[in-house]
Every structure is written in structure tokens, then in C-alpha cells.
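Re: the 250-residue chain
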Amino acid sequence: MLNHFKQILDIAGVILLVLDHEGNISLINKKGLEVLGYHEEELLGKNWFRNCLPEEQTNQVSEVFQNLIEGNIKTFENYENTVLTKNGQKRLIAWDNTMIRDEQGRLIGTLSSGVDITEQRQLEDNLKESERKHRDVVMFAPVGIYQTSRDGKFIVANSRLAEILGYDSAEELMLANMQDDVYWDGAERKRLIDTYEPGESVKDLEVKWKRKDGSPIWISLSAHAVKNPEGTTHYFEGFVLDISERKKHE
């Protein structure tokens, strides 16, 4: 029966770990051994915190565990921490924890299931960094850039566009409405939307807009509709150059 139970634990796709009340390893399954790079006999009976955690985390995590065993912490269900493999590599593990009690209801240890999220977190961090760089490129581009909804609400507006239109900041411009506050003739925007929707785009189109103070401004607009996977319009995106001086000379 014991061997059958161990086989069940070993086919689990997550780390399964049992610690006694002192934090010593009572059980660890095949997945846990694979992640850590140990053989079972190298870990059973050893202290989890001193052997499998980076030195800088040992005291903090073991203190949390001890407070839990002593009943000072009521819940310890979800927790993330770094583990140290046999070859010195650090892996980030997301744990789900439950308490083990004896027949008298006393806490005698923990049962934890863990998922290695090292690569997942790295991908998330890389995506955030990529998004940050993209956002910086947009915000500090030398041309005005915007994204708006069908009804004219700004989704994105960069600093250069705010400067062109006489607003103090991109955040202030975001409070305006493209349809009502930016186009000199709101009907012209509606005509342009009818052009974008079938998948067409406009390039270097001269359009009369208005600044925050109501004065006219001529811009060169290149814009298109961005579609979602279903083929419907998600938002409208445009790139803007101020050509007022050129129009004045003309």
C-alpha cells in the first residue's frame, strides 16, 4: 500500500513536500527531486530551510514556518519563494500549503505542493520590460501618436501630440475627446472612420484640427483602424505632424 501511495505521488506533475514540525523533510516526490537535482536519500531527514533555500532567505522563510507551527499565523496557503538546487541554481516556486495535524489536533507539519514558475516569471518580466520600452518610444516620439475609441475617447496620447495641441501634458489631453475637442469639424472624423473601417488607411492627409484654446491648426495625418481577431474594429490609431507653418506660407 505504501509503495502504491508513493507511485501516486511520483506521477504528480507538481512538487510534493512534507515537512515535520522542525522543518525537516519527511517526504519529497520525484518531481521535487528532479527540480532540486537530488536523490531521495540525500534529502530525507534534512532540514529544508538550511539545505534547499538560498542563504539570504533561510531565516525569513523558516521564521514564517515556525510561526505557523506555533499557531501565530493562521493561514499559509499561498507562498512564493526561491529554492536552491544541488548545483547552486535558483528556482522560483509557487507553493500551496496545508497543515498536518495529529489526532489531538496539534500542528505537526506541513504538506506543500509547488510549481516551478521560474521561466514563467522571467517571461512576464521580459514582457513588462518590452512594454515599458515600447511605452517610452511612444511617449517621447518626435511625432504625435494617438489611439482612440470609436466615440473619440483617448486610449493613448503621447507628449508630442499634447504639445502640438497646446495641452500641458498627455494626461490632460487624455481627458479631451477627439471627436468634440480636437477636430475642427467633427463630421470629418466620422467620414474618416468610414474610410478606416473597411481596412483602408489614410496617409499624409491634411486635416484641420483645433488647439486647446480653440485656435485652428493644420496637421498631416496618417491613420488606420486596428482590428481584433474577430475582424471588428478595436481602436483607431494615428500619427500626426504639425504643418501649420507650411500652410501659412502657402
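The two ends are 92 Å apart (CA to CA).
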